[in-house]
Amino acid sequence: MVAVVPSPPLLVPQLVAGRAAETAELRSACLRAASRLADAADRWIVVAADPGGRRTLVQPVGGTFVGYGVDVPVALAPGAPVKPDLPLPLLIAGWLRGEVAEHVVAAAELVPPDLSAEECRAIGADLAGGAGSAGLLVVGDGAITHTQKAPGYLDRRAGPFDDRVADALAAADPHALLALDVRLATELGAAGRAPWQVLAGATLALGGEWHGERLYSAAPYGVAYHVAVWWL
Length: 232
Fold this sequence. Notes:
Layout: E1 2-5, H1 13-16, H2 24-40, E2 43-49, E3 55-57, E4 62-64, E5 73-75, H3 88-100, E6 105-111, H4 117-130, E7 135-139, H5 158-171, H6 174-178, H7 182-188, H8 193-206, E8 211-218, E9 225-231
């Protein structure tokens, strides 16, 4: 089982105060995806991109959103020690776990955002070989260039790029994910590209007939967020 979610801090109601209703649909989709993953697996591997480079966190850790304005503690397992400056995707993973699946224990695989598609596929295959019954929680955003007010301003290539991502996730098509252009994704600020391609490598290595359901795809505030689940 695989769940794909984005990593905006605005998912956490305490961080958006009176504007939580604006992101209710996105938040609900993420919680549904995490719930379905928790129903299938009580051990997760969180896959995300991080500028700090390739890291494997076998021991679960915790953190806090204090750097985003409110001290909301989260963890990847019950009682996990707090790690300062935990990357945002892992904070989001910890928040989702705490909301829907406090029994879950999660490890993490962080990859550089500029990793090649071939390297992503190889990491995914390695994960598949050692994951056992673990579910994958794949965390990452799409293009940050969908509007003039977006963090990356407007780039008209963002629409077609994220349409391809959304279609690939809906169809559980790992080949389409692997075909995403690394340079274009980088220029669009799509940090989810590398984690999605790790997902593709893992599912191809596992084989079988994968099914997909897209729960959300939109670009509020000019940033594309995709939520989906895949299962065998």
